[in-house]
Amino acid sequence: MSGSSTYADWIAVDWGTSNLRAWAMRGSDAIAEATSDKGMGLLEKSEFESALITLIDPWLGTARTPVFACGMVGARQGWVEAPYTAVPSKPLANRFARPETTDSRIDVHVIPGLKQLENPDVMRGEETQIAGFLAANPNFDGVLCLPGTHTKWAHISAGEVISFRTFMTGELFGLIAKKSVLRHSIANGWNDAAFITAVTDTLSRPETMAAKLFAIRADQLLNATDVGAAKARLSGLLIGAELAGAKPYWLGQNIVLIGDANLSALYATALETQAALSQIADATQSTLAGLNAARILTKEPTS
Amino acid sequence: MSGSSTYADWIAVDWGTSNLRAWAMRGSDAIAEATSDKGMGLLEKSEFESALITLIDPWLGTARTPVFACGMVGARQGWVEAPYTAVPSKPLANRFARPETTDSRIDVHVIPGLKQLENPDVMRGEETQIAGFLAANPNFDGVLCLPGTHTKWAHISAGEVISFRTFMTGELFGLIAKKSVLRHSIANGWNDAAFITAVTDTLSRPETMAAKLFAIRADQLLNATDVGAAKARLSGLLIGAELAGAKPYWLGQNIVLIGDANLSALYATALETQAALSQIADATQSTLAGLNAARILTKEPTS
Fold first, then answer.
1. pLDDT digits (tens, 9 = 90+) for B30-39
2. Domain harbouring A86, CATH code
3. Range of the domain at B41
4. ipTM over 0.90
5. How distant is the Cα of A40 from the closest Cα of chain B, in angstroms?
6. CA atoms lying within 13 Å on the CB side of residue A58
7. Domain count, chain A
């Protein structure tokens, strides 16, 4: 990226455990983007500022530039703790954490996550995507599903997150595919029919999951099943079990998926097996719209 | 161990993926034991013989010594493939794999595992423990549960394994406790009440497991729950879900647990919550008795 033409009005930052993404923004438009592997998990508190400046320096002019950041950057182990807001709540409250910086060119706002006290649960980052979706769809009433490492299901009504529930499905997929005995049976490739069969299997009998997982390995040893089908089957077993558990969220609801496009498409396919229709919203656009909504909030008089 | 007084009549070997255990035997009694970390997973085919000889050399005299080995040593990637026997079957068939050795002091027999074609499943090593248990309890009719990395449930009748089912529970426990986001919330310690609550929780609602797993983390973040209770809860959630899936095996049955004493006690406690009573048999004794049963088989005329 070159310097002079990309001064930003403000800077949007999505700072997760393993990645840092930043965008130079003018109004609601991203005019430049930069990423680094300096995720929260790698950094000491004192290292966040320089990790950010290294990435966004070309976008900084002489005026103090507002920065809005969401994600694990606001965790206790992050740059500055942005204490969770309890649901029911709007996804964004005008109550951002403000780390002190030595570089006076930036003015950093860190967005708090949401917490749920009964049925303990937490999110950090997804609240911003929800806010972004709601900024574009202010009258939405229904369920947002945010598939990922820790998939979130959130019940939305009257602009508020009423309740939510996290499933560790994505993390389980990664661990089982890469670290368990199934790593010998799983490789790239895909098989839609195997995925759909597996989804309906654990959706109706979620209690058999730990046995069905091992059966992928046994089937491969005995019948030399295709490694791509094995991957689809693992994914289907885990997503099917999740849908069984998340049924109170999606059954009979208006469902929108916000996440990685491929993964969202899998969830949509899985939901279709239950005649549940869903729409897919772009994850990055939702994040940017949410960070922009946060920026606009800070300009409004606080109540 | 010292050499001269420990010549073995025969040698018993339990050779798993990550460990190698050997016993110098006289009749059915172990007179010496040795272990090494030369598990099957670490060895090339050409390295098995020397790994074994290094361990058992002090027990070898001038006569050719029979060696009976069970476990992953008989897998395709092991020393010599001992093809699975299909159930229904007695746990041991007189059909051992015989690797060639350069050292003429040993005569090695590798015990085949069992396979199930309908509802694909496999075991290697547990068939020997089952044979050992049945040698001491020839009229047993009921269910054997062998808790471990890959817990096996086996339906036994008239001296045969009729069917079996593997649950990846132990492996999931290890991965989730050590490699997932829950590793921050889990440490040594224990809480019986948390274990029992978690067991009954997933036994009745197994579909919520991936959410209940994340709730361990969220609860710890929000309520600073005890890390020992978190460990008990993780164990209980996984074992409870397994018992839900294995119900066709244990419900109304005569149940014997063969495995690590602590883990078997957890399964017994979990089963008790459902008024299912079980007994615990010693795992090592079962292995040695099974290897001894294999040795006796080779002396009988083949039919």
1. 999 999 999 9
2. 3.30.420.300
3. 4-124
4. yes
5. 14
6. 14
7. 2
